[in-house]
């Protein structure tokens, strides 16, 4: 599934989250978060009209990205790593 957005922007919280995760050894970068939004392996509806994009990160993990859509743009609110076994069936 490919989602077409003019731009994928991030909140300040999401940018700080990149740094926090790196300090804990989860070396995800902004391009990988954007790729998850543009080319998710799975997409579901979230709360408050938001969306959740999932993308496999490695053998044991995936990235879950929470975002909003405004005027053909995506705004990444937050994201987090998760164990694949929890979200894949």
The gist of it:
Helices cover 28% and strands 38% of the residues. The protein has three helices and five strands, in the order βααββββα.
Q: Could you please describe the fold and organization of this structure?
A:
The protein is an alpha+beta fold. It has one domain (8-84): YaeB-like fold (2-Layer Sandwich), CATH 3.30.2310.20. 28% of the residues lie in helices and 38% in strands. It is built from 3 helices and 5 strands. It has helices spanning 12-23, 30-38, 84-87, and strands spanning 8-10, 42-45, 51-56, 61-70, 73-83. It has a 5-stranded mixed β-sheet with strand order 1-5-4-3-2. Strand 4 and strand 5 form a beta hairpin. The longest helix is centred in the first third of the chain and has 12 residues, at 12-23. The radius of gyration is 12 Å and the shape is globular.
What are the SSEs and their pairings?
Layout: E1 8-10, H1 12-23, H2 30-38, E2 42-45, E3 51-56, E4 61-70, E5 73-83, H3 84-87
Parallel strand pairs: 1-5
Antiparallel strand pairs: 2-3, 3-4, 4-5
């Amino acid at each position: 599934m490919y989602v077409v957005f003019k731009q994928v922007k991030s909140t300040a919280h999401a940018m700080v989250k990149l740094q926090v995760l790196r300090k804990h050894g989860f070396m995800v970068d902004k391009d990988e978060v954007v790729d998850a939004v543009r080319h998710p392996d799975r997409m579901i509806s979230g709360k408050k009209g938001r969306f959740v994009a999932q993308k496999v990160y490695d053998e044991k993990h995936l990235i879950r990205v929470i975002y909003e859509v405004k005027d053909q743009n995506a705004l990444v609110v937050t994201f987090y790593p998760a164990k694949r076994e929890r979200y894949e069936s």
